[in-house]
Amino acid sequence: MTDETGPWLVVGLGNPGREYAGNRHNVGFMVVDLLAGRLGGKFGRHRRAVAEVAEGRLGFGGPKLVLAKPLTYMNLSGGPVASLAQFYKVSPGQVIAVHDELDIGYGQLRVKCGGGEGGHNGLRSMSKSLGTKDYVRVRFGIGRPPGRQDPADYVLSDFGSVERKELDFLVDRAADVVESVVTRGVEPTQNLYHGG
């Protein structure tokens, strides 16, 4: 269920701190940073949740977006998300998690509502804290690690030089996907963006 008048909570998943800023695991932060720029919002520390938050509207008089970057580490993201959802009175159906996804090729974007967490600790924490898996996920493909590299090391490493050439474009496209979910809905967004 979505509330036509209520805000949307868009959560970028990542780890706080400069040393993690360019990591594959932090692509969610990159997307909400771009969205904040589009909305003319500035991130600031929330008074009730361990998170940075920026607010704005999509277009003139459009839906309100609350953009969030939890300041806990990835595996504890759920606590701040649940606090923000409660504070802004956002139902789980209007929570969007933007996150890296190992099971999708680099740069591919997929949208879904509900389902499993695929071993992603940020999603696992969100599902537990929200008490449901029925929130929207915008999945940013990072692909599998090369050779025998440990997936945990892979997600905590920076994007490679070849990947970085396309990264700005792909982050921009992921921000478009988030806006499309808010304005059109999940299914029309899937039809629009799942081709590539």
Write a structural description:
The protein has helices at residues 27-39, 78-88, 121-130, 151-155, 161-183, 186-193, and strands at residues 8-12, 44-45, 51-57, 64-70, 95-101, 109-113, 136-141. By secondary structure, it is an alpha/beta fold. The chain has a single domain, classed as 3-Layer(aba) Sandwich (Rossmann fold). Strands 2-3-4-1-5-7-6 form a 7-stranded mixed sheet, sandwiched between helices. A hairpin with a 6-residue loop joins β3 (51-57) and β4. α2 (78-88) crosses α3 (121-130) and α5 (161-183) runs antiparallel to α6. The protein starts with 7 loop residues before the first strand and ends with a helix.
Outline of this structure?
The protein has six helices and seven strands. It is of the alpha/beta class and 196 residues long. It has a single domain (8-194), classed as 3-Layer(aba) Sandwich (Rossmann fold), CATH 3.40.50.
What's the overall geometry? globular
Strand residue content: 15-25%
Q: Which spans of ≥5 residues are poorly predicted at pLDDT below 50? A: none
Helix content: 25-40%
The level 1 CATH classification is Alpha Beta
Structural class, by secondary structure, is alpha/beta
Q: Rounded to an integer, what's the Rg over CA atoms? A: 15 Å
Mean pLDDT over the residues: 94
CATH superfamily: Peptidyl-tRNA hydrolase
Strand arrangement within the widest β-sheet reads 2-3-4-1-5-7-6
Distance between the termini: 28 Å
CATH architecture: 3-Layer(aba) Sandwich
CATH topology: Rossmann fold
- For the secondary structure, the number of strands is 7
Largest sheet: 7 strands, mixed
Number of discrete domains: 1
How many separate helices? 6
Helix and strand run: EHEEEHEEHEHHH
